[in-house]
Amino acid sequence: MGKNQNVYDNEIFFEGYKGIREQENNYNKLQEQPAIKSLLPDLKGKRVLDLGCGYGESCSYFIEKGAKKVVGIDISRKMLEVAREENSHENIEYLEKSMDDIDNLTGKFDLIYSSLALHYMEDFKKLLTDINTLLDTDGLFIYSQEHPLTTAHEKGQRWTRDESGMRIHYNLANYMKSGKREVTWFIDGVVKYHRTFSEIINTVNECGFQIEKVLEPLPSKEDIKLIPKMVQDFHKPNFLIIRAGRR
Amino acid sequence: MGKNQNVYDNEIFFEGYKGIREQENNYNKLQEQPAIKSLLPDLKGKRVLDLGCGYGESCSYFIEKGAKKVVGIDISRKMLEVAREENSHENIEYLEKSMDDIDNLTGKFDLIYSSLALHYMEDFKKLLTDINTLLDTDGLFIYSQEHPLTTAHEKGQRWTRDESGMRIHYNLANYMKSGKREVTWFIDGVVKYHRTFSEIINTVNECGFQIEKVLEPLPSKEDIKLIPKMVQDFHKPNFLIIRAGRR
After folding, report:
1. How confident is the model at residue B2 (pLDDT cuts 50, 70, 90)?
2. Which chain A residues have any C-beta within 8 angstroms of a chain B C-beta?
3. Distance spanning both ends of chain A, measured CA to CA
4. How many angstroms separate the CA atoms of A96 and A147, rounded?
5. Cα–Cα distance between B74 and B140 in angstroms, integer?
6. Which one of A173, A203, B175, B235 has the fewest CB atoms closer than 10 angstroms to its CB?
7. The domain that contains A141 carries what CATH number?
8. ipTM of the prediction
9. Is residue A131 situated within a structural domain?
10. Which InterPro entries match (chains A, B) (predicted)?
């Protein structure tokens, strides 16, 4: 774990994660993906880099939307095997690579995209600096991460429930303590890095970006019909999504 | 209450608030003021507008730091009486005025400053638009407000405590529900407006500003020596402070 954490190649984690992603309705499909996609620019003729591309679904989407070249990188060989099987295209290149090592990529991109991967990265500043370097003039950086109110969590119960099991409030602790968090998600010892909201905004700024839009997506009425417990997301959002332009 | 809420002219509120502000050590003096002052530019020869100037302490400070003209506005006649008595200066002008009505001010400012007042304002977008209009080229807007995690609160207990009375977590609810909050602070029915982090950042952006720095101040080691319970602020910050330049 740590710098080059590759939990997605753990057999138990891989299968557990696959189970969630294969559900017809899940948080990614209903909340995170529509929100991050709403921030995408016109992709016709664009060069796109997808950091932590996983199964390559977004890479295929970029091609559909007219991108002329997509590079998807992921540290997990098992994820990339699925990507190459299910989302192969002559203009998509998949690379087995840690986000810590993108400083040796060559070429420039118009869009660098990352969905729910950056909270695994310890050195946020180095990564954003590398991303800025890889972007062409007028390039965009659009990414999602677990919301800081979610990553703040260390241990203990996350929620306080009433007698019916309904979540009545989120148990927020240690929000101002940035740093490593070890959580259990399918397996023990999954390492994430908590950063406060101000730390995120200031780092994006300092690394040469101008923030254009910040989203904390909410469930829609339709989502709540599909997954009624999503009404509880009004207490605490799950995702933070940022669109930033290269200054 | 509401649009032109003037709770500070309520006798009970005024005396209660005065009691807090007169304490040698309080959250304003130890956390909010050092943090917001750390964001100030060189003030020599500058024109400053202070929104919700209260006792006028910051107006005096700006003059000390070389400002050539300071306008302090406040909706509370009682607060301004104190300001005129304790922080009078030939280059400070105090105006009894709601922040809703700054669109009829004339002249331009190099700095518009506001300490812990904007969470009382319902129409954030109009206010920021007016502030942008009143700023000269290269003008700065620097303000503090109650942190969104604080304003989210509606009713019930804010904190869960252990047997010794120590705060173990903040009871976060309704964070994603923007809007009016009625709280009890010396008197019942004090009206504040909760806005999410993304709503704040996006509104500042949309109103023609570029965010330069965001602070969520923490107590220092010295603060914790003076007020030991401040160690609990690591669970949830009290203030949000933003420095933004006119685009």
Report:
1. very low
2. 149, 156, 160, 168-177, 196-198, 201-202, 205, 210-216, 218, 233-237, 240
3. 34
4. 27
5. 20
6. A203
7. 3.40.50.150
8. 0.91
9. yes
10. Methyltranfer_dom, SAM-dependent_MTases_sf
